[in-house]
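Batch manifest, entry 17 of 40.
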Amino acid sequence: MEEVLSQILSRLDSMDEGQKQIMRDLVEVKQEQAEMRQEQGTMREGLNSVKQNLTIVMNEQTEMRKEVAFYYGSLMKKLDETRMELSSEIKHVSTIQKQHQNVLGIINDNQN
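Output type: structure tokens
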């Protein structure tokens, strides 16, 4: 009987040790879970920071596009004005050249 009791006690001790090991493992798992939650929080903060930075960059890019469009429009307007002025100057030079030719023609006729 003592032997049976001894075996029972031995098994109970073994089960007790197993429970203690399970409890230690459970504590470790809970610690790992807490660390993972903390890392997730850090990752979320990082992701939020990236999102904020991306929003800032997108807003700056929108402003830059507006500025480029404005300057492009101004440049095109100035180009059109320059074309018109150049066309006017060419017509003026052409008119003067015709007048010079007429004068040269009159001088040539007078010499004959």
